[in-house]
Predict the structure of Rieske domain-containing protein.
Amino acid sequence: MFRPLPHRVPAAISSAASAPAFTGNQAALAAAPQFPHTWVPLATTYELDPDRPTPVSFLGQRYVAYRNNDGEWVVMDDACPHRLAPLSEGRVDRETDRIECAYHGWSFDSSGQCARIPQATDAVAAASLQSTRACVASYPTRVEKSVLFAWLWPEDLLTVVADPAAQPETMLAGVDLDTSTYTRDLPYGWDTLLENIVDPSHIPFAHHGLQGKRTDAIAINMSAPESLGAAGLLFEFGDRTMGMRRSSIGEFRAPFVVAYNGSFEGSPKMFNLTVVCLPTAPGWSRTIIFGGIKPEARVAHAKAGDAEVARQRSRLSVPALQKLGPKPKPSLFAKIFSLLPTWAIHLGSNRFLDSDLAFLHFQEQTLRQRGAPKPASAYFMPAPSDRVIVALRRWLEQYAHVLGPLPPPIQTRAALFDRWTQHTAHCRHCQTAVAGIARWRKRLNVGLVLCLAAASHWAARLLGVACLGGLGLLGLVEQQFRVSDYKHYQT
């Protein structure tokens, strides 16, 4: 799906005399330090609520995303030109197919052209609606394998049409068409997130009990990473996880994607992981992790046959990776896992990212406080597994910049592990689960009242106890959508 918008302001009202060189956030991006100009992966349509104007961010700039009546995804600057209120606090009017500002009711079509100013007389509105100042910048969008990409740069997107690395299909090579996603906003920066994702040596310790154990730690045999220039890095390594030796190839598809493909010694199991890493704001980043097959696509995949699905999943962007061959048939555990609802998988993913969240947040704060001219110079990295971190930092110095200055450290663990803000608030699957919990709580409360009214009967008393137990269980599950904690000394 591709929604081209050839003009930064609506074509009907743009002119050399009235149209600014850049509009909205484009001016800020034009003035920012260097960063690769590619399509930008902002969110996933698998998790976005199409009827909600959802706020998204990139390089410190705020945008809003929603789906119009034609089924196309729209990305605009998240600021009404009237008084700069966020459009993400507004609504999508399905009757007019416009996004409406919640402050004064100004409304805009998908191209960003203002269509209504309720407070203006007909004469004032006729003139004002023709002004470029009444418009919101709207950007070209594409959806590739459920990921919503936007072209946010001042330059025309045709400037990168011949650059494969800038295209969504290259970034997401090897990802299944029907793969589900998990998105989380993290309280540490993009460079820290990339460091973490390309580093296999932290797995036995940071994710002990979740993906392997501390006893899996061994000397990692990592080759010197191969530079792909502005396109990123390629690195090979051997490690041990879940008690099994593993040989893997990792690829940093600059600037947003890290992809792994590997095999286990003496096992038909394969290791495949693709992660999107997005710089959103100073001290914050967004990760999109690709998981199993979407529930609505599982039947179709079963009919297609395991071998064909394996071939689809084994598409790789680097020819050398094809030696790994197709994935084997899924294990019993994988089949059971595939039956879980999306919200349950997301709760497990929350737990996984919780496990290294705190020390990554404070590591980044310490690094910036020390003020090293080059971040890598503040580290002591003698092991072969550190080579990829050195190579990544070199790439960052040469081809990108890191947002700053950092906000102050987060003071409370409740704020640090705020799952609601970081995930639940922008995931339609988890929002649906929370709404379902509210409905069941209401039913159980009604049932409890009825049981109390009939407490003279033993069956009512028994049912009342069950209602109390159900309410307690709902409370525990709901808490997992809102806030949690992770303490390594307890694992």
Summary: Residues 427-490 form one domain. The first helix runs from residue 25 to 31. The chain is about 30% helix and 20% strand.
